[in-house]
Amino acid sequence: MSNLIRVMPAVTLRGVTILPDMIVHFDVSRDKSVKAVQSAMSSDQKVFLITQRDPEVEHPGLFDVYKVGTIAKIKQIVKMPEGVLRILAEGEDRAELKQLREKEEYLEAEIEKIKDCERIEDDDVKEAMLRSMKELFIVYGKDNPRISKQLQKEILKNDDIVQLMNQISINIPVTYQQRQKILEAASLADRYEQLGLILTKEIQIRGIQSELQQKMQSQIDKNQKDYILREQMKVIREELGDGAKADIDRFREETEKLTASKEVMDQIYKEIDHYENVSNNPAEGAVSRGYIENLLGLPWNKTSRETKDLSRARKILEEDHYGLIKVKERILETLAVRMLTRKGDAPIICLVGPPGTGKTSIAKSVARALKKRYIRISLGGVRDEAEIRGHRRTYVGAMPGRIAAGLHQAGVKNPLMLLDEIDKIGSDYKGDPSSALLEVLDSEQNSKFIDHYIEIPIDLSDVLFIATANDIQTIPRPLVDRMEIIEISSYTENEKMHIAKEHLISKQMKANGIKKGQLIIHDDALEHMISSYTREAGVRGLERSIAQICRRSARLILEEKKTVSDVRTDNLEAYLGKPRYTIPKMGKNPEIGIVNGLAWTSVGGVTLEVEVNVMPGKGAFLLTGSLGDIMKESAQTGISYIRSVAKRYGIFDDFFKENDIHIHIPEGAVPKDGPSAGVTMVTAMISAITKNPIRQDVAMTGEITLRGRVLPIGGLKEKLLAAKKAGITTAFVPDENRPDVEELDKEITDGLAICFVKSIDQILEKVVIWPKTEKIEENVS
């Protein structure tokens, strides 16, 4: 074995690094460390000291310690109580750890002694390093109380750079990690660099610390007067018999009456004790007081009694809403399960539909039917995660999140909580509220919901959550997966009539002070209002029109002393003004390049004309009408399909090089987009290219593929309603939407022939008026 490699007992140190020439006391208590010291004393009194990377490791191995340690000579051993040995040792040489073997009684290290650091021959470099290090140490020791003037003077006497750095490394108060870096520096230059970095960083930290202390001192001086005044106010309050003491007594009394778990009670008592200790500090006392009041205000184990009368619940739902059969059935199923199981898993229901279709009012009716407290939480525009989870109490002005605040407001742990406009949640640098809602709306997790302000798990499993949204596409998919989606589609004209007669008219008469018998709105006037004064999926616009009639009637009753305000079609303009909307009726005569399409909007379905012109040119393909990316791609797909089957329809090969094709959808100021206009644009282009007219009593919807296959679409009910209003007699629908049509009421489909198609050829055969049927069939075959 080389003279530089040897085997000796090893002691692993926790939080201590020993350098050469360093005399230090340290304690050993682990059996293996004690045995290693005893083994060293029985031979040459030398032991290898190596530092643990993690002080918490009880039985370190080779990878739990640093690679460089120190060979030290034991000078003295003092036995302490409980088997602890206090060692006085002097570091001698650096050594690199090669192996760390575990003998029966102690650790044995195979080490390689590291040669002394290289010397610098250039005297100018040594002198520069010496001066620089002395200057750094002088600045470091100037404001450091742990470096005495005498010690500083003794260290600066060294004119050898190696001795100077050794003495500085040994005597400055640094962490064991920093000292380890100095130990591992093999060359003089590396050691100089490491020590210089440590001193420079400490000098900078001292400067910042001094600046902060000056600012704090000035603030303390400024607040000294306020402190004296607060103490005087405290004495005055004590003399008057009020103040924090009365609050503390009240808090203790309320806590004793509280019905909650031991964990909650312990936390409240702990916070009351804290408040008692900090009540002299107004700022901290206010924070503690607010926290106690929030904990006492939460309904930890307080519940309201739910109804067990299923027929009563059905009656309330029928009274408050017309139609909405699926929603009512789902609520009654939930109630039935709760009656049988006494609790049951609280479902998370999401009502999705256009504005004004009664989603929010459904939640109110459900709460009334179940005799539950009703809490509405509006999520539209919420962008801060703390709105859901609460603010941490480290913030100034911290408060609970909206969920915890809702429970506080309800006063019971089993309310109905409406999460309104859940599709309009935003996100920014403050976090993603929709991600925070994942825990709230998961029945497997919400029994231990953590609010950052409350800090104690809150049980949300008894809360009946109902969410509302206009568009399911904008809700993150993980959130959708945690909810049961119930779609509320647009109302038909007949449904709007029933809703107006049974709910809206009486509601607005009461709101505007009109008594029964003072206002009569005839059915023909209602029908005219629905068709000519509103264009919507819901009934909000209709309700506003009825409210306008009520206001006008109230004025007539007071000014003209009219006893009855009779509203009919012929005098409706006197109440509402000129009609705002007209339903476009489709032309009867076939036209070339014009096709009726069907589209879904946020206010219901509409008919959409697609116009195509073909002009001599250079093969340009133009798209106008504020089309979105999806519709532009549908047009590109359609023209590619037409070019692939050009011979089938007698289109010459050079047609697309010598002609321009222009697709336009009227009302260019209105943005349009969606995956359901493909078949409409292809049909219009085929008609314009072949110069064959299209029937105008038909409408169509569906997306097309490059091979001519027709894909399914959404919003079918609204689209068919729009087609029926426009006088369409035949509607072409993708074959895969057949189940959707079968679920529709006969009120929607009566008088409308619905043709199911799988490919665009099936549409073209029926809507394009071909000059010779036999020739077309031959081409198609």
UniProtKB/TrEMBL annotation:
The active site is at S676, K719. Residues 8-203 form the Lon N-terminal domain. GO terms for molecular function: ATP binding; ATP hydrolysis activity; ATP-dependent peptidase activity; sequence-specific DNA binding; serine-type endopeptidase activity. It is found in: Cytoplasm. It is an enzyme of class 3 (hydrolase). Its EC number is 3.4.21.53. It comes from the Bacteria. InterPro entries: AAA+_ATPase (IPR003593), ATPase_AAA_core (IPR003959), Lon_bac (IPR027543), Lon_bac/euk-typ (IPR004815), Lon_lid (IPR054594), Lon_proteolytic (IPR008269), Lon_Prtase (IPR027065), Lon_prtase_N (IPR003111). It catalyses: Hydrolysis of proteins in presence of ATP. Its main location: cytoplasm. Residues 589-770 form the Lon proteolytic domain. GO terms for cellular component: cytoplasm. Induction: By heat shock. One of its GO terms (biological process) is cellular response to heat. ATP-dependent serine protease that mediates the selective degradation of mutant and abnormal proteins as well as certain short-lived regulatory proteins. Required for cellular homeostasis and for survival from DNA damage and developmental changes induced by stress. Degrades polypeptides processively to yield small peptide fragments that are 5 to 10 amino acids long. Binds to DNA in a double-stranded, site-specific manner. Belongs to the peptidase S16 family. This is Lon protease. The lineage of its organism: Bacteria, Bacillati, Bacillota, Clostridia, Lachnospirales. The gene is lon.
